[in-house]
Amino acid sequence: MKIEFLNKDKKADFELVFVKDKNLKNLKGDFDFGNYDGSGEFLDIKNQKLFIGIESDYNSYANAIYKACKIFKKYNIKSFKCEFESLECEYRSVLFLAYGVLYSEYEFNKYKSKKDEKKPSLKEVYLINKKINENDANEALQNAKIIADGVSFTKDIINEIPSVYVSTSFEEDALKLAKKNKLECKVYSNDYLKQEGMNAFLAVNRASEHPAKLIHLTYKPKKSKKRIVYVGKGLTYDTGGLSLKPADFMRTMKADKSGASSVLGIIKIASELKLPYEIHAIIGATDNAIGPKSYKPDDILISREKVSIEVQNTDAEGRLVLADCLSYAQDLKPDLLFDMATLTGACVVGLGEYTTGLMGNNEELLADFYTKTKNSGDYACVLHFNPHLKELIKSKIADITNTASSRYGGAITAGLFLDNFIRKEYKDKWIHQDIAGPAYVEKEWGIHSFGASGAGIRLNIDYLLKLARSE
Ligand code: BES
Ligand code: ZN
Ligand code: ZN
Q: How wide is the angle at C-alpha 461 spanned by C-alphas 460 and 462, nearest 5°?
């Protein structure tokens, strides 16, 4: 799809008209709007215009043009133009319009026997604004393409089925990406994990027919201002293990690899945007299977940080994998340490399906991260730690338990569990991101199609871009 920014008019098959002012009489031209009241969509075939009601925010721009693309595709329209009014930030107005167009192209249909026979008809989109800076607009377009491409790459991994996408698939994809984007890539397996004392990670892998994989990708620009380390939960399937998930809750657990998939997407995008940071992506990949070798509730595991963990529930496996991966990550001496994981159902219950939970010890860093990413397109919310919740993961026979003694505050008690593996010198540098809600949603929402959304990618890329601009 060709998206172009222009500061002059252009001929196209159709025109998309954003309706902000519900008084339709103010619109130039002679239209018969029938019952249309300025909200939702109105397609005027005779005048070749599509009217869509919008609000004054970036997401609304993206959502509106996404909807428009879907409608134009349905009617086999080849090109359209859209003259838009810039919001506060010109760069961001174009960025979000481009997001809407590019996200509308994503489909996961490889298992449909009858694919859309016709190639998508929509080929050209012209974004027109006669007042804004052309360089800003073109930079936004360029960035949107790189980001949307990275998001699609991530979505394809998350959407892939659990019998096909296993730990070694992560290895293959990481190696392929490393070659293409000139990244360093190290891959470790069970022997190394044993040698390193990563017994928490290994326990989760025990019943799997596939090896555990710890994958470490590095992007190093010529001049780097900071070392930023990402850790992603890569559970290619989460059955719950012996603490088996009920059938209804097991479905969609192919998406338990979303954290790792997003971390891969982030390093891909960061290297293509040439961000001025040394970025590491660490993936803990395995599935949580069930079988005679399964680790068991009542087991005690000695983690890489030498913290002993009483297993009370084998379905709280993500935090075990992360505990050892976070330990490995801290050896890299990060300036910032971020983990991304579909960690708790409690986070989904608390925040809803569309929002990422942000946790950590450094309130200032969390506030800064939140403020910088407020307009990233992804929703996030800070969940604050408190000492009372910390009490709930104490164990009588080990240092901590992998599940809390109360079901209240489950997202935060999982975050507090991870905090036990963060060394003193990195406490203030760490943010845990629980993406269990938005990573995979079983309906279309905003500019996201059914299934994987790539949530967390725009959030983190926006943070990195803003950080780079502020330093
Ligand atoms: N992968 C799940 C969390 C999850 C739930 C992700 C729903 C996406 C949607 C995680 O491994 C898990 O099972 N967590 C348990 C923890 C509990 C046993 C303490 C949960 O949230 O129920
Ligand atoms: Zn689980
Ligand atoms: Zn899980």
A: 90
Name the band, by pLDDT with cuts 50, 70 and 90, for residue 291.
very high
Active-site residue, 92 included: no
Helix axes 363-372, 457-470, angle to 10 degrees: 100
Strand, helix or coil at 14?
Answer: strand
In ligand 1, the atom with minimum distance to the C-alpha of 414 is 19
Q: Could you give the C-alpha distances from 255 to 33, 167, 437, 453, in angstroms and in order?
A: 43, 13, 11, 10
DSSP 8-class letter at 7:
S
Q: Is the minimum distance from the CB of 316 to ligand 1 under 6 angstroms?
A: yes
Asked whether 340 and 229 are in contact (CB, 8 A), the reply is: no
3-state DSSP call for residue 187? strand
CA 435 to chain centroid: 7
Amino acid found at 446: G
| 318 pocket-lining for ligand 1 (C-beta < 6 Å) | yes
User: For position 30, what pLDDT does the model report?
Assistant: 86
Q: Which of 81, 304, 319, 372 is catalytic?
A: 319
Tell me how far apart the alpha carbons of residues 61 and 76 are, in angstroms, rounded to a whole number.
22
pLDDT in tens, 182-218: 999 999 999 999 999 999 999 999 999 999 999 999 9
Rounded CA-CA distance 90/61 in Å is 12
> Is 466 part of the annotated catalytic residue set?
no
List CB-based neighbours of ion ligand 3 within 5 Å.
235, 238, 256, 318
Confidence of residue 117 (pLDDT cuts 50, 70, 90): low
The whole-number pLDDT of residue 305 equals 98
User: Does any ligand 1 atom lie closer than 6 A to the CB of residue 392?
Assistant: no
Report pLDDT for 409. Answer: 98
Give me the catalytic one of 220, 225, 245, 390: 245
Q: Is 278 in the pocket of ligand 1 (CB under 6 A)?
A: no
Tens-place pLDDT, residues 328-366: 999 999 999 999 999 999 999 999 999 999 999 999 999
